[in-house]
Predict the structure.
Amino acid sequence: MWKSFFRERLSWILFVLIWLSIIDALLLLEYDIKVSSTSFWYLNLLTLCLLILFLLWRGIKERRFLKKLSLMLRNDAYDLQEMHSYVRTKADEEMLSLLQHIDRVYRRQTHALHVQQREQQEYVTTWVHEIKTPLTAMKLLINAHRTELYKWPWLKDIEDEWMKIDGLVDQNLYSARLQYLEKDYQVQAVSLSELVFPNVAYFSKWCIEKKLHIDEKNLDTLVHTDPKWMQFVVRQVLSNAIKYSPLEGKLSFFGEETPKYVKLFIADRGKGIPTQDLPRVFEKGFTGNAGRKTKGATGLGLYFSKKITDALGHRIEINSLLHEGTTVILTFYKPNSFDNLSKM
């Protein structure tokens, strides 16, 4: 700070030194002016000392204002009204007025942006609820004619597209709700089977078409979580497992309980994930090599899953070997470690 202060006052220093040099030249060159060498050096030394003292005085005054300003910027918490007690010069006052003006404009624009964002989210949430009604009606119509699928084979294609649309609408709805998760959760004891089987039933058509074998073990174990949010997480994981499973593949669901936690393993025998893609699977919008080939992946399912499990105090991990399959592990900590959730 001192270095920049002296650099900015270089013109002052040069002016004083040049003026002192002119006086010295007059004293030395003017024959009629008689000054002893002691007085000559005393004058120069006194002028330089006064210059240094003046600069130090100015620097200390200005430094207090700038130091306080710098401290507030570093802490990202400021109160510009408090800065009035540090104002010493007209320049400080002008700078503070400018900062206050910028602060008012920033707050006004931020508030307008928040209002706009909230209205947009309310619109999206309302739209999703509205679109759910015709989607439910479509599903009822498809189910009502399920026994006649042999007459209209194209009805199967419509049901496939319906499931894709319903999945995307669900993602949109949970995305809009995600930021309010701390106000919209209800922790209760649920079994792992209550998280798994409703989703298996939801994707039963795809499982049947792919002739997938379902294997389950130890799913009666209870965990403490919000079933609505965790069912959404399991649905995202299961959707990927089915999508990348081969024909006549196998899906495995099994639970593991220890004194500290309960783990739910969801494994498939699909294509697996390349090693270089694994660290990025929870990044927003990351689809990986497999997602780029199918062109239907959004790269949002695992991103939302990670956000939700983190917010609920759980953990999600993925282990995978290329061409051998993928295992997603959901860890639910038992109540002793679960207390942090109450602090949300």
